[in-house]
Amino acid sequence: MIADTSPMAVGPPPQIQVMQMIMAAMPSRTLGAVAQLAIPDVIGNDARNPAEVAEAIGAFEPWVRRIMRAAASLGVLQERGDGSFENTPLGDALRSDTPGSVRALGVLANEPFHFMAWGGLAAGVRTGEVPFEHVHGTTFFDYLRDNPDANEKFAAWMTQTSKLANEAIVASYDFSTANTIIDVGGGQGALLAAVLARAPQAKGILFDTPEVVADTSPLEGACVQDRCAVVGGDFFESVPSGGDLLMLRTVLHDWDDDDCVRILCRCREAAGPGTSLLILEMVLPGECSPHPGFIMDINMLVLNHGGRERTAAEYGDLLARAGYRMEGTTPTPSPMSIVEATAV
Ligand SMILES: C[S@@+](CC[C@H](N)C(=O)[O-])C[C@H]1O[C@@H](n2cnc3c(N)ncnc32)[C@H](O)[C@@H]1O
User: Is 253 a catalytic residue?
Assistant: First the structure.
C-alpha cells in the first residue's frame, strides 16, 4: 500500500497550523481572565447564570456572559438549556479548591507584570537585553521581593505546578536512605512535603528567601512540619548545613552558568564528600525535538538574566566546576528529569 503523504493527510495546511499556534495566545488570555475572575470558583458544584456570577464577582454582566460563553467554547464550562453554566472537569481544574488545581497558573500567566515581559521578546533577542528587565527596570526576583502581591502569586503558581510533578518525582527516586533532606530554593515546601511523606525516617530543611518561607502551608498540609525546619536566607551567601541529600528544583534554570556554580558551591560547602545532590529540571535532549523544555527555555530568557534550560552534559559541566561528580540522569513520568550528583 502506498502511504498518503499529502499535506491534508498529515494535518491542516501549514498556514492554518501556524495560525493556530499564534492564536493560542487568545484562549490562554481568556482562561487566565476566567481564573482571575474566579468564575469556576463561583460556579462550584452548581450551575450559575451569568447574572448571578456577575453579581458575585462584582462585574459587568453582558461581558461576563460573553467570557463564560467563550470558556464554554473551550470546554471549560458547559451551557445548560436554561442559560446557566456548570463546570466541566476542565473548569474544576481552574477552581481554587480542587486537587491538582492550576488556577494559580492561570492567574499568574495573565498578570500584566508577567506577560508584558513577553512583549519584549523580539527586542530582547535583537539586543540581548532581558525582556523582563527592559520592561520593568529591575530583575525578576527583585521585582518579586518588592511587590508582595506578585510574590504571593508567583509562589502560589510554583506550589501548584510543584504538586503536579511531585508524584512523578517521588516515584522516580529512592529517598528511603536519606537522613536529612534540604530543599534549596524550595519555595513554600510542596516538594519537600511530598518527599518527607514518602520518607518517614527523614528530617527536612526548607530553605528559600524569607518572603517565600513566610508561608509554608504545604508542610502543614502534609503533616510533616514537625520533621522540618524552615530557614530563610540567600543561597548566594550560604546554604544550611547538615544535609546528606540536597535538592534544587527549577532553581538553576533561573540563573546563568556562573551564578549556578555559585549556588552549587554554597551547596558543596554546606555538605561534605559523599553527600548527594539532586537537580530537578526539564533536562533538554541533545537535539531539537518536541520537548516542553524548549519553550520553557524561552520563558527563562524572558524573565531572568542568563536563565535557561540545559542539557545533561551542560549540568555535568556546572557540577564539575562546583566539586560534584554527576552520576546520571533519570527521566520521570513528568517533563522533569532528575540529575543525580555526589560531592567529591
Ligand atoms: C522557580 S522557583 C522554584 C521553587 C521550588 N523549588 C519549586 O520547584 O516549586 C525558584 C525559587 O528560588 C528562590 N530564590 C530565588 N533567589 C533566591 C536566593 N537568593 N536565595 C534563596 N532562594 C532564592 C525563589 O524564591 C523561588 O522559590
Answer: yes
Distance CA 188, CA 249 (A): 12
Q: Tell me the pLDDT of the chain averaged across its residues.
A: 95
Q: Give CA–CA dist 127/329, Å, rounded.
A: 34
How many distinct structural domains can be found in the chain?
A: 2
- Binned at pLDDT 50, 70 and 90, residue 11 comes out as confident
Look up the domain containing 93 and give its range. 7-97
The confidence score (pLDDT) of residue 221 equals 92
> Could you identify the atom of ligand 1 that is nearest to the CA of residue 236?
19
| 46 CB within 6 A, ligand 1 | no
135 shares its domain with 45:
no
Percent of the chain with pLDDT over 70: 97
Among 134, 253, 291, 305, the active-site one is 253
The pTM of this model reads: 0.89
